[in-house]
Amino acid sequence: AANTTIPKTVSRHAPRVRQEIREQFELEQDLRKALDSNEFLLHFQPVVCHAEGRARSAEALIRWDHPQRGLVQPSQFIPIAERSGLIDKIGLWVMREACAQVGRWNAHGGDRLKVAINLSASQFLDPRLRDMLAEAIEAEKIAPDQLEIELTESAAMVDHDYTRRTFGRLKDLGLSIAIDDFGTGYASMSYLRKLPFDKLKIDREFVSNVDTQPDAQAICSAMIALGNGLGLHLLAEGAERIEEVDYLASRGCNLFQGYYYSRPVPAGELIETLSDIELLSARRKAEMPAPAK
Ligand code: C2E
Ligand code: MG
Ligand code: MG
Ligand code: MG
């Protein structure tokens, strides 16, 4: 009889909720072992300079090669890693591995590449951050300007003064700094003005279908004008179609990262992907009508 008092909706959803909780718990347990078992890897997504028609930098994006589940995407485990405190160790691995990979590409000859890594808020708030970055750079004998850090607005905004000081110390090391997912956090004009960073990454939310959406056009045009006015580099995230690239380029955005040019690829495929992008851009240029005199 007691059973009949349980609302139908709860009894119907409870197994799914329980399943979800169990799954999160299992992932967290597995995550604890993943570092020691070498299950993480980095993929790299090219960042294309529109004016040059080529890419000389890439964003490092973590992947987890789970022994049973196969490749797990960061959206499925980064939040768990952040909640459980595992992110600091994982983040340190990312730093070292990204620098090691840049070192391998340096040794390989060819153009010097630059790699951007994502930092979680807790890594950014760690007083050892500067030293950890300095050590990773030193250990691999790479140039500091071959490394960029990406931080979201919300992570950067926790403490204004701390952020300004920390950005200053990281810039002194020679790193560059990008604000990630720009437009989705708590951007205030005063931080844009006061913080020493180099690049704004316009979130995919505004880039998607920007060629056909007047509201996205207004927002992107304003962000680009603002960024250019402040002397920042502007990057559009998640451009999937040429029309999006063309629209934003015509508004003054010069850097693009998205499936139109390339998905994130394993380290071993990056160099070839970069030459494919150069060919694609050269072909497009050749096809373009000559500018009217
Ligand atoms: P993010 O830093 O904003 O990275 C961009 C995300 O957009 C990547 O997803 C990338 O694969 C995806 N993307 C790029 N171009 C396109 C496109 O044209 N279309 C679509 N639909 N997606 C595109 P990914 O690799 O799944 O990473 C998701 C997020 O996970 C990242 O967003 C970042 O916040 C976080 N993340 C990834 N690697 C790390 C890491 O090493 N450390 C930390 N703390 N976070 C990481
Ligand atoms: Mg990023
Ligand atoms: Mg982003
Ligand atoms: Mg994003």
From TrEMBL:
One of its GO terms (molecular function) is cyclic-guanylate-specific phosphodiesterase activity. Residues 24-278 form the EAL domain. The keyword Cell inner membrane does not apply. Keywords: Membrane, Transmembrane, Transmembrane helix. This is GGDEF-domain containing protein. It comes from Devosia pacifica. The chain holds residues 274 to 566 of 571 of the full protein.
